[in-house]
Amino acid sequence: MWRLLFWLLALALPSMVAAGCPGPELRLLPLAPGLWWVPAAPGESDGGNRGQVSNIVLAQEGRGRAARLWALGSGPSPAWGRALACQARARLGLSITDVISPWARPELVLGVVGLRQAGPVRHWAHASVALAMAEQCPHCVARLRLRLQAAASDLGDEPIHLPDQLLQGEQGRLGPFDWWRLPRAEGRWITVWRLRPTGAKQAPLWVAHGLLQGEGPPDGRDADLALLLQASQRLATLAAADGPAARFIGEQGPVLGADAPARQAVYWSNLLDEARAAVARGDDEAAPAPAWPDLPAGWQRHPWHGFNWQRAWRQVEPEVLAAPPR
Questions:
Q1: pLDDT tens-digit profile of 148-165?
Q2: What is the pTM assigned to this prediction?
Q3: Are 74 and 84 in contact (CB under 8 A)?
Q4: pLDDT tens profile 226-266
Q5: Cα dist. 318→183, 246, 286, 321 in Å?
Q6: What's the rounded Cα separation, in Å, for the pair 43 and 147?
């Protein structure tokens, strides 16, 4: 009975924002007791979605006064971070104590300033992610201001807070999570996170920003597609021990099933193979991105598939043209 009451109450929470909390009004959807998902808007940042195009996960660690609330991601701006801090406290009765920046994407990491304005928050990231944020964030903020249009004021004057709690190495444990570092491009890294189940009936949850995508094809812009293929295969191997119970959350879209990493690895493999074959045949590079038999419905027409095709072509062309003739 208590579980039924938990879910009924949780489903009602989006309409129960406490007076005084700033907008936008956020959806904090329950995944399990002590675990919530703030879903992203699909597509690109704009004034309508205020840049909230990356999924965020909140996880409670411990109970009572010793409880900590971890945020995987902080949102696209200080204004959004302030909304998250206030609404999490009002709806969940918990203050965010720790925030993790999984990779250097502005829409995922610029809410930290707002979270810290609401109370003391430890800001965690892998050292390589923190370095990328220091190098990329100033330029990314300028581009994000243009995309947000009328909502650009959400960013304020100083929207960047670099992580001050740094992780080292290729894998480790932090709070309720296990984590691994995986490559996205040469010298650029993402971190994937596995929430350790707290009960026998809780499914293992993996969060893979910058790698998995639940809303259309994965996004390979600014990435080395061969490294994304390797990272997807590595994630599939890591999660194999969890079996069919494993669930995944990517950059956007809904919770994914256990086959998500393998399916996206197949996509990258097929895309690269198709590009190699097209270059070898001398096809027109400007032709539409191709389909193949197991390409999911709708993906061929998705803009990201077209961008991925252009990137795959550029990355395999030197390799194919340098190969000796058969």
A1: 999 999 999 999 999 999
A2: 0.92
A3: yes
A4: 999 999 999 999 999 999 999 999 999 999 999 999 999 99
A5: 22, 38, 17, 5
A6: 12
